[in-house]
Amino acid sequence: MRQAGRYMAEYRALRERHSLLDICRTPELATEVTLQPVRRIEVDAAILFSDLLLPLEPMGLPFDFIKGEGPQLERPITSPSDIDRLKTFEPQVALSPVLEAIGMIQRELQGRVPLIGFAGAPFTLASYAIEGGHSASFARTKALMYGHPDAWHRLCERLATMAAAYLTAQIDAGVDAVQLFDSWVGMLSPADYREFALPHTRGIFERIGRRVPTIHFGTGTAAMLGELTEAGGDVIGVDWRIPIDVAWERIGDDRAVQGNLDPTLLLGPMPRMFGQTDAILDAVAGRPGHIFNLGHGILPSTPVEHVQMLAQYVHSASRRRG
Q1: Which of 77, 154, 237, 270 could form a disulfide with 217 if both were Cys (CB 3.0 to 4.6 A apart)?
Q2: Is 2 one of the annotated active-site residues of the chain?
């Protein structure tokens, strides 16, 4: 989860010279940042370095990253009429630097590990578009969702169509798997997820088909794992708020799972991190379809040595368990 980032000195060195958006829009830089953790850590896959908000700009929702605050949209959606003004675009044109980076990365990897591409899910993208950035309550998002449900579904359908086209373009460009990020969907109740998000997310998985493995990720989703599974994905992400074996029971035997380790454990003493790692591996008990991962992204203050030791420990502990 979020392999590349500020916890790595080589990434910080690049960021001193280039903005995050410049890196995302420059294939050579995106390739370099994608490869940084592959060189330093025993990861079993590379994750394309990009940002899930990139497709919002060609839709007519430009944004930038404000230091210390995160992404901020210039003109957030404030009314149903704003939705009707959104533009459609061809990912092969508007997001061509991302697709070019995929080809570069694959040439550098030479099959060493697979490459995972990604896109944002409709609810998460809609929340950014409406809130204008991060939010604690998602009050504006839910006000539009509850108050103007027809407009909400129009917005999510447009975002789903875009996300499906974008992921398909990434697959065409050469990624080996794709992940759909619904980072903020845990702010919904299961009933609201079923009404306002599930149909659109399911539409994305249906549109991209089964050309490559698909991963469906969200946080705060312990109460709606059944609904997330129904929406789609060969692999369902599980955060740290529920035991992984309990989560897998709710997800079902026909899906793989990833995640479950609290990222903050990488900030503490190694024996505790290793102990929780063992607990996850013991709960899984060698069951096929388990991808060891964090429940969310690596925190910027994490020592890179801790990430290296975790990856090494998971590999050695898994071998010991056979």
Answers
A1: 237
A2: yes
